[in-house]
Amino acid sequence: MTFDLVIAGGTIATAADVFKADIGVKDGVITALGIGLEGAETIDATGKYVLPGGIDSHVHIDQPSGEGIVMADTFETGTLSGLFGGNTTLLPFCVQEKGKSLRDALTAYHAKAEGNCYTDVSFHLVISDPTESVLGQELPAAVADGYTSFKVFMTYENLRLNDAEILQVMDTARRTGALAMVHCENEDAIRFLIDRHVAEGRLEPLSHATTRPLAVEREATHRAITLAEVVDVPVVIVHVSNGAAMEEIERARARGMNVTGETCPQYIRLTEKDLEGMNWEGAKAVCSPPPRTEAEWDNIWRGIQTGVFDVFSSDHCPFRYDDERGKLNPKGRKDFRHVPNGIPGVETRLPILFSEGVSKGRIDITRFVALTSTNHAKTYGLYPKKGTIAVGADADIVLWDPEAETTIRHANLHDGSDYSPYEGLEVKGLPRTVILRGKVMVKDGELVGARGDGRYLPRELSMKVRRPG
Ligand code: URP
Ligand code: ZN
Ligand code: ZN
Ligand code: ZN
């Protein structure tokens, strides 16, 4: 049998094994692992790791952001940036606007994504208005159609749900088999601190961090887990920034709860100090929860190493810094309350975790693959089609050079933002070639794929939800 494509001579790493073999690809699918395979096209992977394509299960693309603020990425630039960062699948959010239906939201986001993507994409829903019809009909129908996860917020005035609403939404997750993700920060406590900061005239970017201290995240994390326990449903705690919130997850697991933890590059590479700086430079690091301290980096690393965190996502949420419609919008230039929350990071996620983790000896390559690909596929209903290198899986493959070094410069990235919060960071280990369903998309750092090569993926129920038998 001749294959369409053979990837020869590399070191394959999955979440479980590291081994030398060639990969044979036919019709976009891995059909053989062996030695001496021959294909119409052969890529030499000598000296490279051969990894399943990165899956980033937490990205924001082209979300309406209010106040005339425009997110910096379309599906074209967001997925292109993700692709160059070694990703073959992204899971952006499809946000229900208050007073509107889930159908309206899905129609709008599909229209934005259709024909524009360089990676495969699938949507999580954001439930902002859990009406009777949303809970009774729309959400169950959406789950049946392959939108098998959704996020709820405990903060942000226009998105937050109260505890009663969260219980109702979680109960719908229990009935339908959907997986609930929760953004954990106590909005009332934040409001209280914001009022106090404003009264004191403290309007600079750093106030974003000091109005969202660790305690407001820890409390909300505890509460979200408690609500999930009351309903008896699995839950994902997204973008955990610190050890105290992480310990809430550890305690819940110790009593037998099904809790998934997610953390992000900003919580191992940025600190509150990045929100200081001249001329509102600190606005570049405004995200929620805010970056903490170097001592918290160590706590987060412990969670990455011991498995408290199953998934390492970017929370890519790009705005332009020096732009009327971005971070320094007319109001955002004077008052931290108007600086949009979120930072770009879909292209730098894998290099930062590899460099800080694998190259520096904190984690091994199998853990890297689990954290950046396999566990995302398992958690969000894409496994084993996505997230591994095995016969029958989609040929989503990255050739990774563990020795390549670079200094992160926004000028070399592909997103629509105008800065990187990691500017100047030196990283060792980079994706060189990226293959999507057997099609070479990036070859030795050059784009060869096309806009529209990425497809929409309906998803199965999460493996965290499925019961055996
Ligand atoms: O600041 C952030 N993280 N913005 C994105 C929205 C969210 O809460 O994930
Ligand atoms: Zn969030
Ligand atoms: Zn987010
Ligand atoms: Zn950019």
Topology:
Elements: E1 3-8, E2 11-13, E3 18-20, E4 22-26, E5 29-34, E6 39-44, E7 49-52, E8 54-59, H1 75-84, E9 87-95, H2 102-113, E10 120-121, E11 124-126, H3 132-144, E12 149-153, H4 163-176, E13 179-183, H5 187-199, H6 206-210, H7 214-231, E14 235-237, H8 243-254, E15 259-263, H9 266-269, H10 294-306, E16 309-312, H11 349-359, H12 365-379, E17 397-407, E18 426-436, E19 439-443, E20 446-447
Parallel strand pairs: 1-6, 2-7, 8-9, 9-10, 9-11, 11-12, 12-13, 13-14, 14-15, 15-16
Antiparallel strand pairs: 1-4, 2-3, 4-5, 7-17, 17-18, 18-19, 19-20
The structure holds N-(aminocarbonyl)-beta-alanine and zinc ion (3 copies).
One zinc ion is lined by residues 183, 238-239.
Quick structural overview:
The modification N6-carboxylysine is found at residue 151. This protein has helices at 75-84, 102-113, 132-144, 163-176, 187-199, 206-210, 214-231, 243-254, 266-269, 294-306, 349-359, 365-379; strands at residues 3-8, 11-13, 18-20, 22-26, 29-34, 39-44, 49-52, 54-59, 87-95, 120-121, 124-126, 149-153, 179-183, 235-237, 259-263, 309-312, 397-407, 426-436, 439-443, 446-447.
